[in-house]
């Protein structure tokens, strides 16, 4: 009796996801650490705080930073609930996200037209022209979801009617990635 074979494309997709997770996410990423004693700072040209709704809107060359994590965008909206900061939404052309983690030799750089950090779900979402890069390794798609708690990446291509939704991944040879980090 033979076991059912996994279709080659599905098998390749699993391998690519595993390789991507190990290449891009070698160090644990926590996005903004809301349990940290380090403050989150926000700089912008304009700010509007609606305390009754728990919403702060920043516009004009916005930079949100905490230790090694930085988010820059045209507009950033911060949402608070009873537990504190719960969600960050950034839009830009593109919005940019950068993170360096202790012990990590190269920063993780990402960009998209919309970046959402959902603290409750420990999830980063990059939408529209999404790209994540580290040490020359690249992951690009229409939408990339990153579960920061479980370190799981899911990417989707753009299926905007043409049926050619694709995800692109570039993985550098081991020697290249190591020599780039020195």
UniProtKB/TrEMBL annotation:
The superkingdom listed in its UniProt entry is Bacteria
Q: Which UniProt keywords apply?
A: Periplasm, Signal, Transport
Q: Any signal peptide, and if so, which residues?
A: 1-31
Localization, UniProt: Periplasm
Pfam families from the entry? LptD_N
**InterPro entries reported for this sequence:** LPS_export_LptA, LptA, OstA-like_N
- Please list the residue ranges annotated as the Organic solvent tolerance-like N-terminal domain: 42-149
What does this gene product do? Involved in the assembly of lipopolysaccharide (LPS). Required for the translocation of LPS from the inner membrane to the outer membrane. May form a bridge between the inner membrane and the outer membrane, via interactions with LptC and LptD, thereby facilitating LPS transfer across the periplasm.
Please report which protein family the annotation says this sequence is part of: Belongs to the LptA family.
Q: Which PANTHER family does the UniProt entry name for this protein?
A: LIPOPOLYSACCHARIDE EXPORT SYSTEM PROTEIN LPTA
Name under which the protein is recorded: Lipopolysaccharide export system protein LptA
């Amino acid at each position: 009796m033979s076991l059912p074979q996994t279709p080659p494309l599905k098998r390749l997709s699993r391998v690519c996801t595993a390789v991507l997770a190990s290449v891009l996410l070698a160090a644990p990423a926590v996005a903004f650490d809301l349990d940290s004693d380090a403050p989150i700072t926000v700089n912008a040209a304009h700010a509007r705080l609606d305390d009754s709704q728990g919403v702060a809107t920043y516009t004009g060359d916005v930079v949100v930073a905490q230790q090694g994590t930085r988010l820059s965008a045209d507009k950033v909206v911060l949402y608070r609930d009873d537990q504190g900061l719960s969600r960050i939404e950034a839009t830009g052309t593109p919005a940019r996200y950068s993170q360096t983690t202790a012990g990590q030799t190269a920063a993780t750089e990402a960009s998209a037209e919309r970046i959402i950090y959902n603290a409750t779900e420990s999830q980063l979402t990059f939408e529209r022209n999404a790209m994540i890069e580290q040490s020359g390794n690249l992951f690009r798609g229409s939408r990339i979801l990153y579960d920061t708690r479980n370190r799981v990446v899911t990417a989707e291509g753009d299926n905007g009617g043409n049926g050619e939704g694709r995800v692109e991944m570039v993985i550098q040879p081991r020697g290249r990635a190591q020599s780039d980090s020195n």
